[in-house]
Amino acid sequence: FLNSILIVAALFSLQACTRIETGEVGVRLNASKQIEGTELQPGGFYQTLVGSVITFPVKDLSISVENKTPMASDNSALADFDMTIVYAINPTSAAELYSTKSRSFHAENKGDIYLMYNYMTTLANNAAYKVIRQYKSLEVADNRAKIEVEIRDAVHEQLKSEKLEGALSLTVVQVRSILPNAEILKSATEYVKAQNELK
After folding, report:
1. In Å, how far are 78, 126, 167, 182 from 156, measured between CA atoms?
2. What is the pLDDT of residues 101-123, one digit of tens each?
């Protein structure tokens, strides 16, 4: 009978625990919803009988920026611009970011909170619009690699200016699609055709 009680107690205690997975950190919220102490590290089981534990993925957080139409330097909007960015959170900054930054900066998915997800989406989008503005519509596709570097640099500068450089890092910028304005393409094709006919 005593063994049965011990087994039930052990099972109950395991159910009242949260495990932090690899690539995540956690923070404990006490009964009054205040953050306690420092970040909880991967691999451990943390009790949730009193209070709760919130988990945050911190590595390789991927964001897709889709169907944007930034303006080129010749005042024509691109037909399509898509990119993917990947960023990481410094695990020792998770509790501070969660407690001091606006909730609107974060996103939630399947019980996990993606710290600064919406903030980084906005930052990358703004950087892309700023960088594309420096190129003519027909030059953009040929400068894809350069644009990726310039977007990454622009985001880093913004993070630095807001004193977030140590807490957040942008690791990848990949431009997946760049389509110039259809009218610009048509005009360029007609120009080349006319030049060839002239020859």
Report:
1. 25, 12, 12, 33
2. 999 999 998 778 999 999 999 99
* Of 86-90, 97-101, 109-113, 135-139, minimum mean pLDDT range: 109-113
* CA–CA gap between residue 37 and residue 199 (Å, rounded): 77
Residue 39 burial by Cβ neighbours in a 10 Å radius (0-12, 13-18, 19+): buried
Residues 6+ apart with CB under 8 A from 35: 27, 28, 29, 95, 98, 99
Contact partners, residue 92, CB within 8 Å, separation at least 6: 38, 39
Burial class (CB in 10 A: 0-12, 13-18, 19+), 89: buried
Q: Containing H/E element for 3? A: helix 2-15
- This prediction has a pTM of 0.79
Nearest Cα to 131, choosing from 157, 95, 102, 96? Answer: 157
Do residues 179 and 78 lie in contact, with contact meaning Cβ atoms separated by under 8 Å? yes
Q: Where are the beta strands (DSSP E) in the chain?
A: 17-19, 24-29, 35-40, 45-47, 52-57, 61-68, 80-89, 107-109, 112-114, 168-179
List Cβ neighbours of 18 (8 Å cut-off, separation of 6 or more): 26, 45, 46, 48, 52, 53, 55
Phi, psi of 140 (to 5 degrees): -60, -50
